[in-house]
Amino acid sequence: MSDLLTIGYEGATLPDVLDALSKAGVELLIDVRAVPRSRKPGFSRSLLAASAEAAGIGYRHLQRLGTPKPGRDRARAGDAEGMAAIFTAHMTGDEPQAELETAITLAQDRRSCLLCFERDPHFCHRTIVAGMISARTGQSVIHLTPCHLTP
After folding, report:
1. Measured between alpha carbons, how far is 133 from 129 in angstroms, rounded to an integer?
2. Closest by alpha carbon to 7, among 85, 17, 89?
3. What whole-number distance in Å separates Cα of residue 72 and Cα of residue 138?
4. Contact, 16 vs 136, CB < 8 A?
5. Is 38 in a helix, a strand, or coil?
6. Residue 151 banded pLDDT, cuts 50, 70, 90
7. Among 59, 71, 103, 125, which residue has the least CB neighbours within 10 Å?
8. pLDDT per position as a tens digit, 21-42
9. Residue 102 is inside which H or E element, if any?
10. Taking Cα atoms as reference points, which of 9, 7, 17, 15 lies closest to residue 37?
11. CATH fold of 4-65+94-144
């Protein structure tokens, strides 16, 4: 079984992210943002999906694995613990649990990478999602960092 990967695109360009994914042998990009839009060029859902597909990487958006607005607000305020508490409570719901099951199946079938915005995985809910998947599958989690990050 392959490792489960994660990546954040903060400070990176779309080519940098796609390059990191390709070099890591990613077959499927799992977007775990609640709101798959971005002010950063190339990272809104439709363009990201098309770009990933053009690079030979599948794309799947799992909205219910995203952080609800109160959690995103806590993250923006620099409160990682508050975000994590809100997100963990959110994950007890039926819809998030159903999408977690989908993510588990996808991650077992193809070399997958969870995508969200935050550069540092320790301040992002994708690490919590990766931990939940890993607890069920036994996969090791590796956090990718795109090249050419801007400060």
Report:
1. 6
2. 17
3. 28
4. no
5. coil
6. low
7. 59
8. 999 999 999 999 999 999 999 9
9. helix 94-109
10. 9
11. Protein-Tyrosine Phosphatase; Chain A (3.90.190)
User: Quick check: 20 and 9 in contact, CB under 8 A?
Assistant: no
What pTM was computed for the model? 0.95
Report how far residue 147's alpha carbon sits from residue 102's, in angstroms, rounded to the nearest whole number: 30
Task: Give the three-class secondary structure for 71.
Answer: helix
Tokens of 93: 């719901």
Where exactly are the structural domains of the chain?
A: 4-65+94-144
Structure tokens belonging to residue 67: 């952080």
Amino acid at 61: H
Quick one: DSSP state of residue 63?
Answer: G
User: Which amino acid does the sequence have at 28?
Assistant: L
Q: Name which of 71, 83, 91 is nearest 136 in CA terms.
A: 91
The helix (H) or strand (E) run that includes residue 142 is: strand 141-144
The gap between the terminal CA atoms of the chain, to the nearest Å, is: 35
